[in-house]
Every structure is written in C-alpha cells, then in structure tokens.
Sequence to fold (206 residues):
Amino acid sequence: MAEPGWYNAAGDPPGTQRYWDGGQWLGDAVYEPTAVQPMVPPAPASGYAYAGGAVVAASTFPSGLKTIAIILSVLKAIPLAFGVLGIIIVAAAANDLNDEFGDVGFGLDGLLGAAVAILVVIVIVGALLLGFQFVGAIKERPMMVFIPALIMTLFDGLASLGSWLSWNEARDSPFLNEGPGGAILMTTVLAAQAYVAVQAIRANNK
Fold:
C-alpha cells in the first residue's frame, strides 16, 4: 500500500493528482502544481491545498457546451432587440390611432395595449432566460445553464412545430410560395438549445 499523499489515479486525466489516505482515494482529481512542494491532506472547508497554497479542482464543465451556450445566447438576443423596437413602434402607433379614432368611438386602446403588454412580457422573459444561460456558461455553473436551457427548449419546440405547420399550409395554398427555410432554421435552433440542456445536466451530474 502506498503512503498517504497525492498521486495520479488510474483513469484520471494526465497532469492531475488525487489524494490517497492510505486506504482509498478522496475527492476529485486536481491539477498538479508547477513546482514540487510538500503535500498535505485537503482542508474540509476550502477544498484541496498544498503547503504552498490552494489548488484549483479540475473543471468538469465541457468547453464545447460553454461555447455553444454563449453563442446561442448572443444570437437569440438579436430578436429580443427587435422586440424592444417593436414595443416602441406599437406604443407609438397606439397613441396615434387613439388620437385619430377617439372622436368616432373606436376603442383601440385595449387591443394595442394588450399587444404592447404581450411584447413586454416576451422580451422580459426572454432576456431573463438568456441572461441566466449566458452568465451560467461564463461562470461554468451547469444548473444555471440547464434550467433556462430546458425552458427555452420547450419554447423552441413549439415555435419549430408552428413553423413546420405554417410551411405545410403555405405549400398547399395556390397564393403562397413559402419555402421551408424558416422551419429549418427554427429546428436548428431547437437542436442547439436541446444540446445545451442535455450537456448541462450531464455536466452537473459528474
């Protein structure tokens, strides 16, 4: 039996060490220090430590997941920016229409007000979900990525289904000549978002 200390355990990534207490391995693998230093057992509250200072544990957050989650969050933020512009336009139109038709008794305030409220809710919810996914990817926190990714996967699934149904109806119409490009794009976004959700929960379970 080896004496208690830090060793490279079988199956661990090259360049890492794990603490052996004389009978079993303790904790996760950590990166080796750049210089040879006396080794001490890990401190319970602060993780692994050498005599020379703390050692950062090996990250289990996949780099591919981080990259895709960040890119997807940024790309999805673009339609939200157009949503903010839409809110401004609809709100301005609501004022103009109410001024124009107010004297003849058309109550357009309720309809346009509802449209503005729906757009505001969509933008706020979308911004929160994308924000949590983006920050979670930056900080490499799997659950912070998984929860918004799962919710957005459900939304993207509905949007993708609606896109294919719309294309199918347009294909049967003699007046419309709509291609499947939009439906394919939505399906691609759905696949990417589902990948982020699956990989995030897998990283959390490691």
